[in-house]
C-alpha cells in the first residue's frame, strides 16, 4: 500500500520587534524618569553647595568689596593673613574656648550617659530633659547667660556676694569672657553628646559586663577598663563633631559681646573675625581666605583627634607592648 505525504503549510512565527525597528531600547532613556525625580536634590546642591565652595576658593585669590570689579591678588590674602596679629589672637581665643568647653562637656556627657544607662525609672523624662538645651534657641540661651554673667546685676555675682565673696567682672576680663562662652557651649551640647554616648552604651553586650563582674572587677574598673575602650568609636565621633562645632563658635560671642569681641578682643573667635572682615569691612576676598584657613585648622585637629582616640586597635596594642618591653629592659639594666 502506498503512503502519501501531504505538505502542510505552517504559519511562520513572527518575532516581536522593538518600536524602533531592530534597535534595543536605550537604557538611559528608560531610566530618565528616575533621574528627573532625583534631579532637584543635585540641582539645589550644585547651586547652594558646590558653587559657593568653588567660588570662595576663587574669591580668596581676589580683592573684592562686593560691588566693584574683582582684582586678582594671588596669594597676597594668605600672606597678609599669616602676618595678621588679630587672626592669631582669634585662633588663640577659639582654641582656649574649645578646650574649656569640649573637655568638660565630653566627660560630663559620659558620666550622664552612664547614669541614664543604669537608671531604672523616668528614663524617657531624663533623656528629653538633657536634650532640650540642644534644640533651644542659641540667641535666647546666650541672652539668659548674659544676665547670669553680668558684671553689676548678674545672678552669679549675686550668689558670690551672698556667700561673702566679692563680685567678679566676668564680661570685662579676658579669662572671664572665655569661661562665660565655654559655659554656654557646654550647657547647650552636653545633653546631645550624652544621648550619643547612651546609644553607644546600649550597643555593648551585657555578657561583657557579666564577665567583668565574674573576674572581680569593681564598678570603677569596669567603667574605665571595659566601657570606655568599647566606646572608643563613639568617643571619636563626639570628639570630631565637638571639634568642628567648637572651632566654628560665633553666635555665643556675637550675642554676648557684639562686634567688638569684648575688651581687647578677648571673645573674638575665628568665625567672628571672618564676619567682621567680610560683612562689616566688606573685604570679601580676605574673608574667604579666613574661611579656608579655618577649614585647614578643622581638618588638622580632626586628624589629631583620630590619631589620639581612633586608629587601629592592633597598632595601639603593639605600640603599648613595645613601650612595656622597652621599660622592662630599661629597669633590668
Automatic annotation (TrEMBL):
Domain ABC transmembrane type-1: 91-305
Membrane topology field: Multi-pass membrane protein
Primary subcellular site in the record, as a coarse category: membrane
Coiled-coil segments on the chain, per record: none
GO cellular component term of the entry, any: plasma membrane
Start and end residues of each stretch annotated as Disordered: 1-25
UniProt keywords, alphabetically: Cell membrane, Membrane, Transmembrane, Transmembrane helix, Transport
Single biological process term from Gene Ontology: transmembrane transport
Transport among keywords: yes
Subcellular location: Cell membrane
Transmembrane spans: 35-61, 95-116, 128-149, 179-201, 230-250, 284-306
Similarity comment: family membership: Belongs to the binding-protein-dependent transport system permease family.
Designated name of the protein: Cellobiose transport system permease protein
Organism listed in the record: Kribbella caucasensis
Amino acid at each position: 500500500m502506498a503512503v502519501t505525504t501531504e505538505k502542510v503549510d505552517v504559519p511562520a512565527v513572527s518575532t516581536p520587534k522593538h518600536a524602533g525597528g531592530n534597535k534595543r531600547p536605550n537604557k538611559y532613556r528608560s531610566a530618565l524618569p528616575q533621574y528627573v525625580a532625583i534631579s532637584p536634590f543635585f540641582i539645589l546642591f550644585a547651586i547652594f553647595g558646590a558653587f559657593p565652595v568653588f567660588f570662595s576658593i576663587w574669591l580668596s585669590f581676589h580683592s573684592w568689596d562686593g560691588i566693584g570689579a574683582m582684582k586678582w591678588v594671588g596669594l597676597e590674602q594668605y600672606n597678609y593673613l599669616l602676618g595678621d596679629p588679630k587672626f592669631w589672637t582669634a585662633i588663640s581665643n577659639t582654641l582656649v574656648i574649645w578646650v574649656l568647653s569640649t573637655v568638660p562637656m565630653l566627660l560630663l556627657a559620659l558620666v550622664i550617659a552612664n547614669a541614664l544607662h543604669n537608671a531604672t525609672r523616668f528614663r524617657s523624662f531624663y533623656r528629653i530633659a538633657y536634650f532640650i538645651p540642644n534644640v533651644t534657641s542659641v540667641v535666647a540661651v546666650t541672652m539668659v547667660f548674659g544676665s547670669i554673667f553680668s558684671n553689676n546685676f548678674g545672678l552669679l555675682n549675686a550668689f558670690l556676694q551672698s556667700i561673702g565673696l566679692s563680685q567678679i567682672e566676668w564680661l570685662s576680663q579676658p579669662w572671664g569672657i572665655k569661661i562665660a562662652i565655654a559655659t554656654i557651649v557646654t550647657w547647650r551640647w552636653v545633653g546631645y553628646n550624652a544621648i550619643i554616648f547612651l546609644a553607644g552604651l546600649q550597643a555593648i553586650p551585657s555578657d561583657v559586663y557579666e564577665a567583668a563582674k565574674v573576674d572581680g572587677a569593681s564598678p570603677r574598673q569596669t567603667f574605665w577598663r571595659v566601657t570606655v575602650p568599647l566606646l572608643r568609636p563613639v568617643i571619636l565621633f563626639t570628639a570630631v563633631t565637638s571639634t568642628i562645632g567648637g572651632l566654628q563658635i560665633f553666635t555665643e560671642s556675637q550675642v554676648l559681646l557684639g562686634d567688638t569681641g569684648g575688651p581687647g578682643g578677648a571673645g573674638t573667635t575665628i568665625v567672628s573675625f571672618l564676619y567682621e572682615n567680610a560683612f562689616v569691612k566688606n573685604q570679601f576676598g580676605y574673608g574667604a581666605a579666613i574661611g579656608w584657613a579655618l577649614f585647614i585648622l578643622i581638618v588638622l585637629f580632626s586628624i589629631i583627634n583620630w590619631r589620639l582616640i581612633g586608629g587601629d586597635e592592633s597598632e595601639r596594642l603593639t605600640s603599648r607592648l613595645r613601650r612595656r618591653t622597652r621599660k622592662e629592659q630599661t629597669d633590668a639594666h
